[in-house]
Amino acid sequence: MFKKFAWLEWKSFLRSASFGKSLGLKILMAFLALYFSAMFLFFGIALFPVLKKLYPEQDPLMVVNGFALAYFTFELIFRFLLQTLPVMDIKSLMVLPIKKKSVVHFVLFKSLYSFYNLLPLLLIVPFGLYCIVKQGYSLYGMLGWMTAMYSLTLCMNFLNFIIKKRFTENLKALIPVVATGIIIGLLDYFKLFDISGYFGDFLNTLFHNPYLAVIPVMLLLILYNWNLQNLKGKFYLDADLKGKSKAANTREFGWTRKFGSIAPFLQQDLKLIWRNKRPKTTIYLSFIFLAYGLIFYPNETYQGMPTFFVFVGIFITGIFMINFGQFVPSWDASYYQMIMAQNIPMRQYLASKMGLITFSVVVLAILSTPYVYFGWDILLLNLACALYNIGINIPILLFAGSFNKKRIDLDKSPFMNYQGTGASQWLVGLPLIFLPVLFFWVINKFVSYDAAVGFLAVLGLIGLLLRPNLLSFLTQRYRSRKYVMIEGFKQKGE
Amino acid sequence: MITATNLSKVYNGNKVLDIEHLNIPSGQNFGLVGNNGAGKTTFFSLLLDLIQPTTGNIFNKDITVSQSEDWKPFTSSFIDESFLIGYLTPEEYFYFIGDLRNRNKADIDSFLTRFDDFFNGEIIGRKKYLRDLSKGNQKKVGIVAALIGDPEVVILDEPFANLDPTTQIRLKKLLKELSHISGTTILISSHDLIHVTEVCDRIVVLDKGVIVRDMETSEATLNELEAYFSAEIAES
Known about the structure:
The structure holds two protein chains of two kinds.
Chain A: H1 2-15, H2 19-54, H3 60-82, H4 91-94, H5 100-112, H6 115-133, H7 139-169, H8 174-189, H9 195-208, H10 214-233, H11 263-275, H12 277-290, H13 293-296, H14 306-325, H15 336-341, H16 346-367, H17 376-401, H18 423-446, H19 449-465, H20 467-490
Helix pairs in contact in A: 2-3, 2-6, 3-7, 3-9, 5-10, 6-7, 7-9, 7-10, 11-12, 11-16, 12-14, 14-16, 14-17, 14-18, 16-17, 16-20, 17-19, 17-20, 18-19
Chain B: E1 2-11, E2 14-24, E3 29-33, H1 40-47, E4 55-60, E5 63-64, E6 75-78, H2 90-100, H3 105-113, H4 116-119, H5 135-145, E7 153-157, H6 165-182, E8 185-189, H7 193-199, E9 202-207, E10 210-216, H8 221-235
Parallel strand pairs in B: 3-8, 3-9, 6-7, 7-8
Antiparallel strand pairs in B: 1-2, 1-4, 4-5, 9-10
């Protein structure tokens, strides 16, 4: 059965509309993967000698164990942000004589077959071998230790699976998890409850009693089983239908009338965002990331590096732009044919999307004004970044959007549906953020801070003034891509 | 009103549509029939510029559809459910289409009262999103939305499929009135030979992309069509 599923997966990969696009991205990712593999391998080999040098009076293995919990926590966070979970279209499989269990097993096993599970191996195994071969640590002790560490790594894989599942279904469910994590972290930091110490002690004991490695392995099995039960319970078409009988929300967004000819589209987009889970998350994310500045502005380390603040400024005023804008026009995929056949000039369609995103940047810029607390220059910089976002980044994003031909199913069950929540999503955001950072860095270094801020603002203004021309260009672009998009959007599934 | 010349569409060396010349005069009720794969939906998609022709052109009121968007204001269509916006309620969807066709809310409200029977109380004021309606009710919404704003050309792909019998009869009446009273050009496709002969003034039969029959509807048409489509079975 597994062979059959693997065959299906392979076909859907080769035959999907986004094959070309994802292939390019995949090559880039492969390079990144090679780079990180090399880094981890190097680090794995060098870890023991380096630690010996840094903490000459301590046993390097004990030091590693002391840091293990912090390491796993970061691993979990990284996995949460970057790792894409496997997807499978179950509807067509439900009525076939296939055991539910084997489908779910397949999905869970597929998640193991991930680069993020290979990387830690490159760290753990060389370190372990170094300890055994060069330092004469007990063979069984180290084998037990390696088994434990890798089991814990895989535990993170499945823990992430569960958390992500909950996150897409209900954002609020994440709050207690994060809160508990922060509290434990703080207790640990202030030495009130030394949990990473206890965790380290456990690993130390484990080294001396290798049979204890059974505990992490058991934990792994428990987590696997939890996932299994969780997913199996969701193996119904109506698993997400509960809320559907609820009366429709008929909020009118009447105030959009003020925006003239693009008003109907604006209203329509607001409904799109408000009534569908997926785009709605982009709103929540925007508010969460608004607090992003708090990490950087008060921090002494960054005071001498205003370039960092450009990064922050672009991010907090443009987070909605990045998250929503990069999937234009895929949000409208399910009725794109209608948009194309109805009395909607392409130019107006694009203008309204630009309008909506511009509006979001303005709102976020206004909401970010309290940061004036950290200095007027920060406020000015944020406003310049907002201008840059409006003038330059929005057209760039819409241009990038013209390459989109992958459908987003707004009303699809969230069962294993994580379209666009992986590393590639962040890659698209890179030029949007690093271009202005680069401009700023160069001018700040060779001219002055004020000139650099001014330059970003002026670039934004130029973009704004040229918007009609940019719109014409984009309209051309979208018109010529129209047929490819329609064709691509028709393809359902991944 | 609508003219196709040298029109063809080729997919991977496979010619799925090949129309040398087809002219549909203004105000005609035009029916397209043919088995699966005959090219009906392909023709409609070409007419709406949703796909590109391999050769030839379609002119909608002398406008080349693949080169200008100017045909959009007077042409409306309903091909399938992908023309509906699932997260809107039916009313919102009608208002949205109305906005696009310069009709205000009051216009739409009075327009919709004409369809009270048609909707049978299952559509308006039910506070349901389009995606939660049944297939048949979705179809009703799509068809009625395609009539908003007095379009000169209305294109409906298989309007009778998925509808209940009563609604099918109502729809036939509606379509006949529309072309005879307000002079709208209506293009429909159907697998139901009885419906199409009742509604349409002219019927074109497509087979593998080629026009094989082109007839004005008369008493004899239904028999002729039935004879044509059963010929293959009789042969074997």
